[in-house]
Protein: Endonuclease I family protein
Organism: Streptomyces cinereospinus
Amino acid sequence: MPATQIRRRWKTVALATSAVLAGLTAPTLTATPAAATTTAYDTTYYRNAIGRTGTGLKSSLHTIVSSQNKLSYSAVWEALKVTDQDPNNSNNVILLYSGISRAKSLNGGNTGNWNREHVWAQSHGDFGTSAGPGTDLHHLRPEDVQVNSIRGNKDFDHGGSPFTNSGGSLTDSNSFEPRDAVKGDVARMVLYMAVRYEGDDSWPDLEANDSTTNGSVPYHGRLSVLKQWHEQDPPSSFEERRNDVIYTSYQRNRNPFIDHPEWVEAIW
């Protein structure tokens, strides 16, 4: 039985209700930590991480996911046509922030094309597009060329205004808010990078923090908001399939926060 069929998840979200009586304030919307899950990989791939928490869990996961095949930047083009294929149209890919289904053949750098979006912005650590963090499929997604440019290297946070082909995403002077359907995806990609790249393999030590002015330092924010998004938007079937395809067909490593959402709270 595929791993995606045996995963068990429970999620409890406290719902805010409108306050209509004078002097009352609507309760703040909160999310409870994801409940423990099990996967087919717990006795094999994740066996050295099971039962750990905090820095011990982060260290174990780093060792586990650091064993991977690395792609060239040119190979990423073809890989994204598989990992991000539209489940309703095999000729198209789904663009991350826009949610648009666009022809696989329209990859490139012109208006109307899609290109390779680094969810962990390249400049946050200056790692470029060499094999490593610059080509890691776990944070590379297809996106409209102009939308990719609008996102730029901004940190993630609430707020801003919509823009052409935004799909519900928002941006302001120093942050970017993805559309609701992929908020959790973005969070889990950023946190994967913070675990995978710890500065012990010639690449920068990437870490999540609570800033929206990280610029060229190897940090990405905002951690507090990313954690909220992770809870509010749990892994979807699209995200789970993508994780499986990257593992089986390309890099031979997994994003642990898709398999075990509860590990985000266990570490951060």
